[in-house]
Amino acid sequence: MEPEIKIQAYVDGELSVRERSKVEALLEKDPEARALCDALMAMQEVVTGNEPVMNLPESREFFWSKIERELTAGERITEAPKQTAAPWWMKFLVPFGAAFCLLAVLSVSTQKGNTTVSPELAVTEVETSGGFTVYAPEENMTIVWVDTGVN
Amino acid sequence: MPKKKPDYPKLEDEELVSLSKEEDMLAYEELVHRHRDKLYARAYSMMRNEEEASDMAQEAFIKGWQRLEQFHGQASFSTWMTRITINLCLDLIRKKKRQRAESVERLEEDLGGVERQMDFGLDMPVPWAGLERTELRKRIEKALGKLTEAHRTVIVLHEFERLEYKEIAKRLRISIGTVMSRLFYARRRMASLLAGLKREREE
Questions:
Q1: Which one of A37, B5, B88, B195 is least enclosed by Cβ atoms within 10 Å?
Q2: CA separation for the pair B159, A47 (Å, rounded)
Q3: Residues from chain A contacting residue B65 (CB–CB below 8 Å)
Q4: Shortest distance, CA B12 to any CA of chain A (angstroms)
């Protein structure tokens, strides 16, 4: 940080205690830095306490009329509902749930692949000339492999 | 027995806010009347345009009414409304900036930057010494008008709104370093403008 910016931060009360002492040491030995600090302080004081005062160049009625129109037409925003903190285990729910579902799907598909040994699927296999058909009544699905003879 | 109509001008802001929360528009009108000049002045400091400043103040009061349920009196009604006004002004400034093909302020800063010297431009006795407050305020107002938009905005947020660097950075969506350099540059310029205005007057 440039020294002049640091001096400004000192004037604005934005420095840590340690940095403040460093700047104070600089101000003691460097008259230019001291002058800048004084000028910044004077500037801050004069501007902060003297914000321009202005009067709205519109009558009370005229200024209010537009606001009133909008207020009558519009709706109010009610307070946003406060969010209650979720219990700690909630964050694990989604990943564990997803993993469980995946395992379940894998387990079912493994069982489906093993059609000849699974009694509940009751798969019927029919060999036809140049093809192979599998019917699964539980799934109401028929799969036909056709041997086209092309290698 | 019908409820007696309150004497609005005699009520405190807090009471008017409570009545306004109960949809009493006359109470809100009183609040608008009380604070409109301050909001207008703040908006004018940022926008430098009477019409825009008036629009911003009106818009702020509309937003204030709509969000009154969110106001719990942590700050004064005036402070709360001023913050709304500032946010609206910043939004408009951003919008206008997007519309401009090139930001003159950015260009100026890139070329100039912070001058690496301790001279703050006050090579004479404090130029505002001995001035009447009204005259001083006029000069400050005039000097603000000569600052670039970017520098004026940091001056308003820091010196008038008393926001810390990090808060200004957040609102302007710039780094704290940029806030610091803009503020320094803006103060230097203000100092030289105030000195210039004094010279102009003396000649």
A1: B5
A2: 7
A3: 67, 71, 76
A4: 19
Q: Which domain covers residue B142, as residue numbers?
A: 102-203
Identify all chain A residues contacting B160, using CB atoms and an 8 Å cutoff.
47-48, 51
Q: Half-sphere exposure of A109 toward its Cβ, with a 13 Å CA cutoff?
A: 6
Is the ipTM higher than 0.95? The answer is no
Sign of torsion over alpha carbons B145, B157, B64, B7: negative
Same domain membership, residue B141 and residue B88: no
Domain boundary among B99, B131, B156: B99
User: A50, B165: Cβ pair inside 8 Å?
Assistant: no
pTM for the complete prediction?
Answer: 0.69
Asked if B37 has any chain A CB less than 8 Å from its own CB, the reply is yes
Q: Which of A146-150, B26-30, B132-136 has the lowest mean pLDDT?
A: A146-150
Query: Which pLDDT tens digit goes with each residue over A7-18?
Result: 999 999 999 999
The residues pairing with A145 across neighbouring beta strands, listed in sequence order, are A132
Backbone angles phi, psi at A124, to 5 degrees: -105, 130
pLDDT tens figures, B144-164: 999 999 999 999 999 999 999
In a domain, B5, yes or no: no
